[in-house]
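We were asked to recover a plausible sequence for a given structure. The inputs and outputs are reproduced exactly as logged, with field labels preserved.

PROBLEM: sequence recovery
POSITIONS: 273
GIVEN STRUCTURE:
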Protein backbone atom coordinates (compact mmCIF):
# COMPACT_ATOMS: atom_id res chain seq x y z
CA UNK A 1 0.00 0.00 0.00
CA UNK A 2 1.31 3.43 -0.92
CA UNK A 3 2.22 5.74 1.96
CA UNK A 4 -0.26 8.63 2.04
CA UNK A 5 2.46 10.87 3.50
CA UNK A 6 4.89 10.23 0.66
CA UNK A 7 5.29 13.34 -1.55
CA UNK A 8 3.66 12.91 -4.93
CA UNK A 9 6.27 14.86 -6.89
CA UNK A 10 9.67 13.35 -6.03
CA UNK A 11 11.48 15.70 -8.39
CA UNK A 12 11.51 18.61 -5.92
CA UNK A 13 13.79 19.78 -3.14
CA UNK A 14 10.77 20.02 -0.83
CA UNK A 15 10.12 16.31 -1.33
CA UNK A 16 13.66 15.53 -0.11
CA UNK A 17 13.18 17.65 3.02
CA UNK A 18 9.85 15.97 3.79
CA UNK A 19 11.25 12.47 3.27
CA UNK A 20 14.22 13.15 5.57
CA UNK A 21 11.84 14.60 8.18
CA UNK A 22 9.77 11.42 8.01
CA UNK A 23 12.85 9.20 8.27
CA UNK A 24 14.05 11.00 11.39
CA UNK A 25 10.65 11.35 13.10
CA UNK A 26 9.24 8.89 15.69
CA UNK A 27 8.23 5.74 13.85
CA UNK A 28 10.78 6.44 11.12
CA UNK A 29 14.13 4.74 10.51
CA UNK A 30 15.98 3.81 13.76
CA UNK A 31 19.40 4.27 12.11
CA UNK A 32 18.54 7.68 10.65
CA UNK A 33 17.10 8.86 13.96
CA UNK A 34 20.25 8.14 15.95
CA UNK A 35 22.64 9.95 13.59
CA UNK A 36 24.39 13.16 14.67
CA UNK A 37 26.51 15.82 13.00
CA UNK A 38 29.59 14.00 14.28
CA UNK A 39 28.52 10.51 13.20
CA UNK A 40 27.87 11.68 9.62
CA UNK A 41 31.19 13.48 9.11
CA UNK A 42 32.85 10.47 7.50
CA UNK A 43 29.78 9.77 5.35
CA UNK A 44 29.77 13.33 4.04
CA UNK A 45 33.44 13.07 3.12
CA UNK A 46 32.90 9.71 1.39
CA UNK A 47 30.00 11.14 -0.63
CA UNK A 48 32.19 14.04 -1.78
CA UNK A 49 34.86 11.64 -3.01
CA UNK A 50 32.22 9.59 -4.82
CA UNK A 51 31.15 12.74 -6.66
CA UNK A 52 34.78 13.27 -7.72
CA UNK A 53 34.95 9.68 -8.98
CA UNK A 54 31.71 10.18 -10.90
CA UNK A 55 33.12 13.31 -12.55
CA UNK A 56 36.28 11.41 -13.53
CA UNK A 57 34.20 8.54 -14.94
CA UNK A 58 32.48 10.86 -17.42
CA UNK A 59 29.16 9.15 -16.63
CA UNK A 60 26.44 11.82 -16.25
CA UNK A 61 23.92 9.34 -14.82
CA UNK A 62 26.35 8.36 -12.07
CA UNK A 63 27.20 12.00 -11.38
CA UNK A 64 23.51 12.87 -11.04
CA UNK A 65 23.05 10.06 -8.52
CA UNK A 66 26.10 10.99 -6.45
CA UNK A 67 25.11 14.67 -6.35
CA UNK A 68 21.78 13.54 -4.93
CA UNK A 69 23.63 11.76 -2.12
CA UNK A 70 25.35 15.06 -1.27
CA UNK A 71 21.93 16.74 -1.05
CA UNK A 72 20.81 14.00 1.36
CA UNK A 73 23.69 14.91 3.66
CA UNK A 74 22.73 18.59 3.56
CA UNK A 75 19.11 17.70 4.34
CA UNK A 76 20.11 15.46 7.26
CA UNK A 77 22.33 18.08 8.91
CA UNK A 78 19.66 20.76 8.43
CA UNK A 79 17.03 18.49 9.97
CA UNK A 80 19.22 17.82 13.01
CA UNK A 81 19.80 21.53 13.50
CA UNK A 82 16.09 22.31 13.10
CA UNK A 83 15.17 19.79 15.80
CA UNK A 84 17.82 21.34 18.08
CA UNK A 85 16.40 24.82 17.47
CA UNK A 86 19.60 26.05 15.82
CA UNK A 87 18.68 26.66 12.16
CA UNK A 88 16.68 25.07 9.35
CA UNK A 89 17.07 24.46 5.63
CA UNK A 90 15.61 27.89 4.84
CA UNK A 91 18.43 29.51 6.82
CA UNK A 92 20.98 27.45 4.90
CA UNK A 93 19.53 28.46 1.54
CA UNK A 94 19.09 32.11 2.53
CA UNK A 95 22.69 32.45 3.69
CA UNK A 96 24.23 30.80 0.63
CA UNK A 97 22.03 32.81 -1.75
CA UNK A 98 22.92 36.06 0.01
CA UNK A 99 26.60 35.11 -0.14
CA UNK A 100 26.46 34.35 -3.87
CA UNK A 101 24.85 37.70 -4.60
CA UNK A 102 27.19 39.59 -2.24
CA UNK A 103 30.37 38.05 -3.69
CA UNK A 104 29.36 38.66 -7.31
CA UNK A 105 28.89 42.45 -7.42
CA UNK A 106 30.09 42.37 -11.04
CA UNK A 107 26.94 40.34 -11.87
CA UNK A 108 24.37 41.61 -9.38
CA UNK A 109 25.76 45.13 -8.95
CA UNK A 110 27.60 47.82 -10.86
CA UNK A 111 31.20 46.63 -10.29
CA UNK A 112 33.21 46.08 -13.49
CA UNK A 113 35.91 43.42 -13.90
CA UNK A 114 38.23 42.70 -16.83
CA UNK A 115 38.82 38.95 -16.33
CA UNK A 116 38.44 35.92 -14.07
CA UNK A 117 41.65 36.76 -12.17
CA UNK A 118 40.17 40.08 -11.05
CA UNK A 119 37.06 38.21 -9.94
CA UNK A 120 39.26 36.01 -7.75
CA UNK A 121 41.00 39.02 -6.21
CA UNK A 122 37.68 40.72 -5.49
CA UNK A 123 36.33 37.49 -4.01
CA UNK A 124 39.31 37.30 -1.62
CA UNK A 125 38.78 40.92 -0.52
CA UNK A 126 35.07 40.40 0.09
CA UNK A 127 35.70 37.17 1.97
CA UNK A 128 38.39 38.82 4.09
CA UNK A 129 35.98 41.64 4.95
CA UNK A 130 33.25 39.16 5.91
CA UNK A 131 35.65 37.21 8.13
CA UNK A 132 36.56 40.33 10.09
CA UNK A 133 39.73 41.30 8.27
CA UNK A 134 41.87 38.17 8.12
CA UNK A 135 45.52 39.19 8.66
CA UNK A 136 47.21 36.82 6.23
CA UNK A 137 46.23 34.91 3.05
CA UNK A 138 47.67 31.71 4.54
CA UNK A 139 45.14 31.82 7.38
CA UNK A 140 41.65 30.38 7.28
CA UNK A 141 42.33 27.23 5.21
CA UNK A 142 40.55 24.29 6.91
CA UNK A 143 43.10 22.08 8.65
CA UNK A 144 41.38 18.91 7.43
CA UNK A 145 41.99 19.82 3.78
CA UNK A 146 44.07 17.10 2.02
CA UNK A 147 47.72 18.16 1.94
CA UNK A 148 48.09 18.57 -1.84
CA UNK A 149 44.92 20.64 -2.04
CA UNK A 150 46.00 22.66 1.03
CA UNK A 151 49.36 23.46 -0.58
CA UNK A 152 47.79 24.51 -3.87
CA UNK A 153 45.15 26.68 -2.22
CA UNK A 154 47.78 28.39 -0.08
CA UNK A 155 50.01 28.98 -3.12
CA UNK A 156 47.09 30.44 -5.08
CA UNK A 157 46.35 32.85 -2.25
CA UNK A 158 49.90 34.11 -1.79
CA UNK A 159 50.33 34.30 -5.56
CA UNK A 160 47.43 36.74 -5.76
CA UNK A 161 49.31 38.83 -3.17
CA UNK A 162 52.32 39.11 -5.49
CA UNK A 163 54.48 36.40 -3.90
CA UNK A 164 55.02 34.62 -7.19
CA UNK A 165 57.62 33.45 -9.70
CA UNK A 166 58.05 35.59 -12.81
CA UNK A 167 57.58 32.62 -15.15
CA UNK A 168 57.26 28.83 -15.12
CA UNK A 169 61.04 28.40 -15.65
CA UNK A 170 61.62 29.54 -12.09
CA UNK A 171 59.12 26.93 -10.91
CA UNK A 172 60.79 24.16 -12.90
CA UNK A 173 64.21 25.19 -11.59
CA UNK A 174 62.84 25.02 -8.06
CA UNK A 175 61.54 21.48 -8.64
CA UNK A 176 64.98 20.42 -9.91
CA UNK A 177 66.67 22.12 -6.95
CA UNK A 178 64.43 20.34 -4.45
CA UNK A 179 64.97 16.99 -6.21
CA UNK A 180 68.71 17.51 -5.84
CA UNK A 181 68.33 18.24 -2.14
CA UNK A 182 66.36 15.01 -1.71
CA UNK A 183 69.23 13.08 -3.35
CA UNK A 184 71.74 14.67 -0.95
CA UNK A 185 69.61 14.33 2.19
CA UNK A 186 70.96 12.24 5.03
CA UNK A 187 68.94 10.81 7.88
CA UNK A 188 65.21 10.12 7.99
CA UNK A 189 64.22 13.52 9.38
CA UNK A 190 66.11 15.45 6.69
CA UNK A 191 64.77 13.17 3.94
CA UNK A 192 61.20 13.74 5.11
CA UNK A 193 61.75 17.50 5.12
CA UNK A 194 63.29 17.58 1.65
CA UNK A 195 60.67 15.28 0.14
CA UNK A 196 58.00 17.55 1.60
CA UNK A 197 59.69 20.55 -0.04
CA UNK A 198 59.83 18.66 -3.35
CA UNK A 199 56.12 17.81 -3.17
CA UNK A 200 55.33 21.45 -2.38
CA UNK A 201 57.33 22.57 -5.43
CA UNK A 202 55.59 20.01 -7.67
CA UNK A 203 52.21 21.26 -6.48
CA UNK A 204 53.28 24.77 -7.44
CA UNK A 205 54.24 23.48 -10.90
CA UNK A 206 50.78 21.92 -11.21
CA UNK A 207 49.22 25.26 -10.28
CA UNK A 208 51.25 27.08 -12.91
CA UNK A 209 50.15 24.57 -15.54
CA UNK A 210 46.48 24.95 -14.58
CA UNK A 211 46.32 21.45 -13.07
CA UNK A 212 44.73 20.54 -9.72
CA UNK A 213 47.43 18.48 -8.01
CA UNK A 214 44.93 16.52 -5.90
CA UNK A 215 42.95 15.52 -9.01
CA UNK A 216 46.09 14.71 -10.97
CA UNK A 217 47.42 12.37 -8.28
CA UNK A 218 44.04 10.73 -7.77
CA UNK A 219 43.81 9.98 -11.50
CA UNK A 220 47.41 8.74 -11.53
CA UNK A 221 46.48 6.36 -8.71
CA UNK A 222 43.54 5.08 -10.73
CA UNK A 223 45.72 4.59 -13.82
CA UNK A 224 48.32 2.68 -11.82
CA UNK A 225 45.63 0.49 -10.25
CA UNK A 226 44.06 -0.34 -13.62
CA UNK A 227 47.45 -1.14 -15.20
CA UNK A 228 48.61 -3.26 -12.28
CA UNK A 229 45.38 -5.28 -12.35
CA UNK A 230 45.87 -5.77 -16.10
CA UNK A 231 49.43 -7.01 -15.49
CA UNK A 232 48.13 -9.62 -13.05
CA UNK A 233 45.39 -10.58 -15.47
CA UNK A 234 47.81 -11.00 -18.39
CA UNK A 235 50.14 -13.14 -16.27
CA UNK A 236 47.26 -15.34 -15.11
CA UNK A 237 46.06 -15.83 -18.70
CA UNK A 238 49.53 -17.15 -19.57
CA UNK A 239 49.73 -19.47 -16.56
CA UNK A 240 52.38 -17.34 -14.87
CA UNK A 241 52.65 -16.57 -11.16
CA UNK A 242 53.01 -12.81 -11.24
CA UNK A 243 54.83 -12.49 -7.94
CA UNK A 244 57.51 -14.99 -9.02
CA UNK A 245 58.27 -13.31 -12.35
CA UNK A 246 61.65 -11.56 -12.75
CA UNK A 247 61.59 -7.76 -12.83
CA UNK A 248 62.35 -7.69 -16.56
CA UNK A 249 59.23 -9.74 -17.35
CA UNK A 250 57.13 -7.57 -15.04
CA UNK A 251 58.37 -4.50 -16.90
CA UNK A 252 57.30 -6.08 -20.23
CA UNK A 253 53.87 -6.81 -18.76
CA UNK A 254 53.68 -3.23 -17.49
CA UNK A 255 54.35 -1.81 -20.95
CA UNK A 256 51.75 -4.16 -22.46
CA UNK A 257 49.23 -3.23 -19.78
CA UNK A 258 49.84 0.48 -20.47
CA UNK A 259 49.00 -0.05 -24.13
CA UNK A 260 45.88 -2.11 -23.45
CA UNK A 261 44.51 0.07 -20.65
CA UNK A 262 45.43 3.24 -22.55
CA UNK A 263 43.44 2.10 -25.56
CA UNK A 264 40.49 1.31 -23.32
CA UNK A 265 40.62 4.80 -21.79
CA UNK A 266 40.74 6.43 -25.22
CA UNK A 267 37.76 4.36 -26.37
CA UNK A 268 35.81 5.31 -23.24
CA UNK A 269 36.51 9.03 -23.78
CA UNK A 270 35.31 8.70 -27.38
CA UNK A 271 32.11 6.95 -26.23
CA UNK A 272 31.41 9.70 -23.67
CA UNK A 273 32.12 12.54 -26.11
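RECOVERED SEQUENCE:
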Amino acid sequence: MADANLPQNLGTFDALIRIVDRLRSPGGCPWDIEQTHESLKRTLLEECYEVLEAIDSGDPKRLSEEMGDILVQVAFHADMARRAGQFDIADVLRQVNEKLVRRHPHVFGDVRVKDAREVERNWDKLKEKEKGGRKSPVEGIPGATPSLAYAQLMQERVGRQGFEWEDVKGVLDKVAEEAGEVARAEGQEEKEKEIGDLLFAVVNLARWEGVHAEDALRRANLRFRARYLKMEELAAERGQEFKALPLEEKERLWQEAKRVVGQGEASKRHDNA
